């Protein structure tokens, strides 16, 4: 959490940006929506659900008789893929572009209309059926950012086979854990994808993951492989019994597929995310409520006009933002959008802005870490392109600092485009707290207030609402349609993690700190638990500690998230070596090589995003008398601050030893 100085600087921020008059006049959602939703929340969400096509209408909007297990639109049936694709074709929008896909290699583009998407999804659904996928089976998806990824997700949704998309940057080990946890029997992948100008392999990691998952009792029966880069498949090669090419089985499948109407509460997908313990949590989202929540918020928060807007969310589909605001929300709304495969600086630092100009992007949604990177690269890169089509800018994933907000508004938004800072989580499924571009006078750095139909508060440890001008814990006080239903296979952990802290009040505990300003508007302050936020990606301190300790040379490890100008937080690790390794490290001179070895080890165990920025090899870790590591003190060291109060340490000289080591390591 920011220190009190940062906090008071934030709170004294007094710039306000009124919505542009034209946008306000024609906005999808006006101020009255807040009152209407407050008067009857369930009626409000029932109306939002009318945006979708239902097979059978629901009997009850919300069943909350067994909290915290919610059921939304009880008795209703629908098909998510039909809602995202078929119904737009049926309504005469078949020729409308659904995806302007842009590959990383220049000139490698594809436009898919809604009719194209429908054919592809139907073919893929038939092919998956052929491969043995049945309603209720889990399918893991480990893919680059290509149209087939969206097609695979929708094909699973069509069949009622929950998908679990694993970010392509995760390691084989991470993929194996997820395959085993949700017992996926089929994996959809590609030979590779393009990153930073080069093909980057995926299939070898799938082979390794399948082997590991089998050791953990889960046999993957089929691996469906898209040929994207044409690269060599690596040592593990091709398993004729298990592996099938997408172009062999999908291209030849029929484009006719009759979709079943699934129960509103039928599982749509499982998305793994970091929690406070080492084991990732499988967040379960279901169909009717999730689609209602994402479609409504995508339409309201971005003021989407499906007929004219060109929307672009830069998130990878491997994260929840890609699920809710690249796949389900926008497609349910019949939007035309851009999907880009690669990195923002390939082949040049203006690539994103070139794409905005080319497709006339009107709504642009990205993360603060990207915005700060562009600030660093310089205004000349966006300056080379015409960005005047943009009319709404969105931010997600971490608190946006006022400087980044202002730069975004000025440089990308010509000094007049509203910025919507959207707070939500993998668990919430949908945006919860955000300005509305046609209603809210935005404050740089504030997510402002809960959306219509959403109830949030900031409370004390005891669960009492704090007065304006004070901070506390962010809670959600009423259920919402896209809320997670449970953790895959672990109802107890679901209750314990989110609902136990405020069991008496029945609040959902978000794990974030927040402050109400004098107007009651909300300022998000980051996590209050052992979850870090690096470049908008959630990482668990415990998970990285376990990865470090699994290295044979490491005896003990403590990880903290240190404030970082560019990535928000950065991973800093403190490591105690085993006796045998200590001598070796000394010989190698401060253990530089070992530090690199440990960083690589973390990348292998979890993924490159989890690699510590710095690893300090220390003789001891600061612990209380009861043996708890005092991360607060380590954070002081990592952020180069005066070390705080050490009186509760079992051995108060430990911090001196650690301070002596400061500056060593990578
Ligand atoms: C943080 C990403 C401040 C927060 C959609 C939350 C934010 C975690 C914001 C969820 C924001 C997300 N302002 N903090 N606008 N958006 N966060 O599950 O700490 O990857 O708990 O979902 O990101 O991360 P997740």
UniProtKB/TrEMBL annotation:
Task: Report the CDD domains cross-referenced here.
Answer: ACS (cd05966)
Q: Does the keyword Amino-acid biosynthesis apply?
A: no
Function of the protein:
Catalyzes the conversion of acetate into acetyl-CoA (AcCoA), an essential intermediate at the junction of anabolic and catabolic pathways. AcsA undergoes a two-step reaction. In the first half reaction, AcsA combines acetate with ATP to form acetyl-adenylate (AcAMP) intermediate. In the second half reaction, it can then transfer the acetyl group from AcAMP to the sulfhydryl group of CoA, forming the product AcCoA.
Q: What is this protein called?
A: Acetyl-coenzyme A synthetase
Q: What is its EC number?
A: 6.2.1.1
Listed GO MF terms: ligase activity
Record-annotated AMP-dependent synthetase/ligase domain positions: 88-480
- PTM entry text: Acetylated. Deacetylation by the SIR2-homolog deacetylase activates the enzyme.
Q: Where on this chain does ATP bind?
A: 397-399, 421-426, 512, 527, 538
Q: Which Gene3D superfamilies match?
A: 3.30.300.30, N-terminal domain of ligase-like
Q: Which residues form the Acetyl-coenzyme A synthetase N-terminal domain?
A: 32-84
Q: Which HAMAP family match?
A: Ac_CoA_synth
Q: Give binding positions for Mg(2+).
A: 549, 551, 554
Catalytic activity reads:
acetate + ATP + CoA = acetyl-CoA + AMP + diphosphate
Read off the PANTHER family from this record: ACETYL-COENZYME A SYNTHETASE, ACETYL-COENZYME A SYNTHETASE 1
């Amino acid at each position: 959490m920011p220190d009190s100085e940062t906090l008071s600087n934030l709170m004294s921020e007094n710039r306000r940006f009124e919505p542009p008059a034209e946008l306000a006049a024609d906005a999808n959602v006006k101020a009255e929506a807040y009152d209407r939703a407050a008067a009857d929340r369930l009626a409000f969400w029932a109306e939002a659900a009318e945006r979708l096509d239902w097979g059978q209408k629901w009997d009850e909007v919300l069943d909350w008789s067994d909290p915290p297990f919610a059921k939304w639109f009880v008795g209703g049936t629908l098909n998510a893929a039909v809602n995202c694709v078929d119904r737009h074709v049926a309504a005469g929008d078949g020729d409308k572009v659904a995806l302007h896909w842009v590959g990383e290699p220049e000139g490698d583009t594809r436009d898919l209309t809604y009719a194209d998407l429908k054919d592809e999804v139907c073919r893929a659904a038939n092919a998956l059926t052929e491969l043995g996928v049945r309603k209720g089976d889990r399918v893991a998806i480990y893919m680059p950012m290509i149209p087939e990824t969206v097609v695979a997700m929708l094909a699973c949704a069509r069949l009622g086979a929950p998908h679990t998309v694993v970010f392509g940057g995760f390691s084989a080990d991470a993929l194996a854990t997820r395959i085993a946890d949700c017992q996926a029997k089929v994996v959809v992948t590609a030979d590779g994808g393009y990153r930073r100008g080069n093909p980057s392999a995926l299939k070898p990691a799938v082979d390794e993951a399948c082997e590991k998952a089998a050791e953990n009792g889960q046999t993957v029966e089929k691996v469906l492989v898209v040929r994207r880069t044409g690269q060599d498949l690596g040592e593990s090669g091709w398993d004729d019994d298990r592996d099938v090419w997408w172009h062999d089985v999908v291209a030849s499948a029929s484009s006719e597929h009759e979709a079943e109407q699934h129960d509103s509460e039928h599982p749509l997908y499982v998305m793994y995310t970091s929690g406070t313990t080492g084991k990732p949590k499988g967040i379960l989202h279901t169909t009717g409520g999730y689609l209602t929540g994402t479609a409504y918020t995508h339409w309201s928060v971005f003021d989407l006009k499906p007929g004219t807007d060109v929307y672009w969310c830069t998130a990878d589909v491997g994260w929840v933002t890609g699920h809710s605001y690249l796949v389900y929300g926008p497609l349910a709304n019949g939007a035309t959008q851009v999907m880009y495969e690669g990195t923002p600086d390939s082949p040049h630092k203006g690539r994103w802005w070139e794409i905005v100009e080319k497709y006339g992007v009107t709504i642009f949604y990205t993360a603060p870490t990207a915005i700060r990177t562009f600030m660093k690269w310089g205004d000349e890169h966006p300056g080379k392109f015409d960005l005047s089509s943009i009319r709404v800018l969105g931010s997600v994933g971490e608190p946006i600092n006022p400087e980044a907000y202002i730069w975004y508004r000025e440089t990308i938004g010509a000094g007049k485009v509203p910025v919507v800072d959207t707070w939500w989580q993998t668990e919430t499924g949908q945006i919860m707290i955000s300005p509305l571009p046609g209603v809210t006078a935005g404050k740089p750095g504030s997510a402002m207030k809960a959306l219509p139909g959403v109830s949030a508060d900031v409370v004390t440890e005891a669960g009492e609402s704090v007065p304006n001008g004070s901070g506390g814990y962010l809670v959600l006080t009423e259920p919402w349609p896209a809320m997670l239903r449970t953790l895959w296979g672990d109802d107890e952990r679901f209750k314990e993690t989110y609902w136990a802290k405020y069991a008496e009040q029945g609040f959902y505990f978000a794990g974030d700190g927040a402050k109400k300003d004098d107007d009651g508007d909300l300022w998000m302050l980051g996590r209050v638990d052992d979850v870090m936020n690096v470049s908008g990606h959630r990482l668990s301190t415990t998970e990285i500690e376990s990865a470090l300790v699994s290295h044979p040379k490491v005896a003990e490890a403590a990880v903290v998230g240190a404030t970082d100008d560019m990535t928000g937080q950065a991973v800093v690790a403190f490591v105690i070596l085993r006796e045998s390794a200590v001598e070796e490290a000394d010989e190698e001179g401060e253990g530089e090589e070992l530090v690199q070895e440990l960083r690589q080890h973390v990348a292998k165990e979890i993924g490159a995003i989890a690699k510590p920025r710095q690893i300090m090899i220390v003789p001891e870790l600061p612990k209380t008398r009861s043996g708890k590591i005092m991360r607060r003190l380590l954070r002081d060291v990592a952020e180069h601050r005066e070390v705080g109060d050490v009186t509760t340490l079992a051995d108060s000289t430990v911090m001196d030893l650690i301070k002596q080591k400061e500056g060593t390591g990578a």
